[in-house]
Every structure is written in C-alpha cells, then in structure tokens.
C-alpha cells in the first residue's frame, strides 16, 4: 500500500473522528492533515493494525489540540459533513434529520472529552470495545465505564432539553380562561 492509498483508505474515518472530537470542520481538517503527516513520517508499513493506529494518533492529536486551546465551549455542527442525505427522502425528513444531528452534536459536545472520545470511537466509528481501548490506551473496562457514564449523561441532557421545550410550549400557550377573558372584553 502506498502513502496515497493509505490516505484514500482512511482519510474519511480519521477526519470524522477529528470532527467528532473537535466539533469544528476547519480544525478537524487541520488535525486530520497532521495525523497523516505524522503517519507518513513514520514507518507505517510495519504497523499491524493501521486503522487503530491512525485513529489513536487522531484522538491524541485532537486531545492535544483541545488542551492547547482550552476547549471548553460547545462548538457548532459536527455531523453535517459526514451524513449523506438520501436523494429520495422528502424535504421535511431532511430538515428533521438535520435538526436531530445538530441537537446530537450539541449534546455530545457537553460531555467531558474522555467520554466523548469513547462514544465517538465506539458508536460513530463502529470500533469494538477492545479496538477503542487500544486507540485510547486504556483498559476495556474503562472504555465500558466511560461509555456507560457518557450515555447516562447524554440521556440526562436529553431529558433536560425535553423539559425545557415542554415548559416553553406550556408557558407560551395561553390558557383557555385567558382566551375567554380576551373574548369577553372584545
């Protein structure tokens, strides 16, 4: 396999990992390039599990980037660049899908970096528990723990968001007695 073949084979996966970790397409592109520059400078042909090795570099580079910038705020959309919309789906479904991706992105960004990394590798890159553990350089049990806690936090955040939406709609909606009073005055 040549350097070009390596890049073409793993570019999207490395970029997706960087994007999920960073939340910003421009930053993800920069880190993705750094990952492949590092890989090309090393003797990557001797690496047995190239995919896991590249993803490990990507996670480490992303974590390094986050530490340097003291990344603490929710960034903008993460998923738009990766999910190809079906041409046969109706416009309303595409809009709904976009809103769901945006909401998921925002919820994912609220998680601590370590949990976000575990969830990104396991569920968005379809790595096995052992592969995710290898990439993160932690025991499988720790991956399981981070996944469990991360999913639990995501669930709590989703419930909190649902509660906010429900309160807004109830408060914004005038009561029937309010309508009746307005009509009586008119």
From TrEMBL:
Q: Where is this region: Disordered?
A: 159-186
Q: Name one Pfam family in it.
A: Sigma70_r2
Q: Does the keyword Transcription regulation apply?
A: yes
The residues covered by the RNA polymerase sigma-70 region domain are 6-70
Residue ranges of every copy of the RNA polymerase sigma factor 70 region 4 type domain listed in the record: 103-154
Alphabetical UniProt keywords: Sigma factor, Transcription, Transcription regulation
Q: What is this protein called?
A: RNA polymerase sigma factor
Instruction: Please state which protein family the record places this protein in.
Output: Belongs to the sigma-70 factor family. ECF subfamily.
Q: Does the keyword Cell division apply?
A: no
